[in-house]
Design a protein that fits this description.
This protein is α/β, with parallel strands linked by helices. It has helices spanning 12-27, 51-62, 84-91, 107-114, 130-144, 162-171, 191-199, 211-214, 234-240, 248-251, 282-300; strands spanning 40-45, 66-70, 97-102, 119-124, 150-155, 177-182, 204-208, 220-223, 259-261. A five-stranded parallel β-sheet has the order 7-6-5-8-9, with helices on one face. Strands 2-1-3-4 form a four-stranded parallel β-sheet, with helices on both faces. Helix 2 (51-62) links the parallel strand 1 and strand 2. The protein is globular, with a radius of gyration of 19 Å. 44% of the residues are buried. The structure holds phosphoric acid mono(formamide)ester. Phosphoric acid mono(formamide)ester binds at residues 49-52, 123, 132, 263-265. The site of phosphoric acid mono(formamide)ester has 9 residues, from helix 2.
């Protein structure tokens, strides 16, 4: 039995296979409509979510399966003090696979150790968000035709943004990637990503504060919101939250085919006027999230569709 805790749990070859499957699902949805008849996914969300939880549920429904779960810790027995370990032992009796989001780093990993069904990390604190990374990789590969030979700007809250941490780990395995890490001083990438991931792998990267200066060289721009829920005080959040705002004026500095990604939800960091720009890919990205989660469910449940 296999779980998904980190994007590195899949080799590059396995990722290719998964993304190919996601593309086939997109092209031939009817072929997969009964692939998971009789199967159930449990979505155990101890933190708020729109895309991840609902795209997992849409994915299982599209495959002919069913969904159960909870969308907040308050509406589960966690509110009475139940541990994640006990919860997963019970959920293993009710479902065939589960996706768990939790504010504590490592909680899905703890669950996986007690689980008799595959556990998918749907975001753990400021740590990892591997299925967002699968979504990002599918979006980039589908719209650009490749996963190497890019200069990618990662902009915003690089300290707490788990999507950025996971994406960097996944992308360093592809050739000729340069990272431009764009953040205010206080929201720079954590030391462990800088040292243990980027430097240790001799990965080319620069850390800068100016989005305007970085824009002209970027092939991809990955915007992120400032993670309000991870700040210790409101004052710091308010000071940081509008540090970067991508608008049509700034986009004049960018390449005509630069792709704009964002895991969403967006707050103010991308003006709504940018949504009409053909370079904006973030709503298509959310759609790709369903196909890749369908592919992931099939892979972890070892369901083959001929
Ligand atoms: N991208 C993402 O994780 O969105 P949600 O928080 O809405 O799931």
């Amino acid at each position: 039995m296999r779980h998904l805790m980190s994007p590195l749990d899949f080799s590059v070859e396995e990722l290719d296979k998964l993304l190919n499957l996601a593309n086939d699902i997109e092209a031939n949805p009817k072929k997969y409509a009964h692939a998971c008849d009789g199967k159930k996914i449990a979505t155990l969300f101890y933190e708020p979510s729109t895309r991840t939880r609902l795209s997992f549920e849409a994915a299982m429904l599209n495959l002919g399966g069913s969904v159960l779960g909870f969308s907040s810790a308050d509406s589960s027995s966690a509110a009475k003090g139940e541990s994640v370990s006990d919860t997963i032992r019970v959920i293993s009796c009710y479902a065939d696979i589960c996706a768990m989001r939790h504010p504590k780093e490592g909680a899905p990993l703890v669950a996986s150790m007690k689980s008799s069904i595959p556990v998918i990390n749907a975001g753990d604190g400021g740590h990892q968000h591997p299925t967002q990374t699968l979504t990002d990789l599918l979006t980039i590969r589908s719209l650009k035709g490749r996963l190497g030979n890019f200069t990618i700007g990662l902009c915003g809250d690089l300290k707490f943004g788990r999507t950025v941490h996971s994406l960097i780990q996944a992308l360093i395995r592809y050739p000729n990637i340069k990272f431009v890490l764009i953040s205010p001083e206080e929201l720079r990438i954590p030391d462990n990503i800088r040292e243990d991931v980027l430097r240790k792998n001799n990965q080319e990267f620069v850390e800068v504060a100016s989005l305007e200066d970085a824009l002209p060289e970027l092939d991809l721009l990955y915007m992120t919101r400032v993670q309000k829920e991870r700040f210790f005080n409101e004052e710091d959040y308010v000071r940081m939250k509008d540090f970067y705002i991508l608008d049509s004026e700034k986009l004049k500095l960018a390449k005509p085919d630069m792709m704009i990604l964002h895991p969403l939800p967006r707050v103010n960091e991308i003006s709504v006027e940018v949504d009409e720009d053909p370079r904006a890919a973030y709503f298509r990205q959310a759609q790709y999230g369903v196909y890749v989660r369908m592919a992931l469910i099939l892979t972890l449940l070892e369901v083959e569709v001929c």
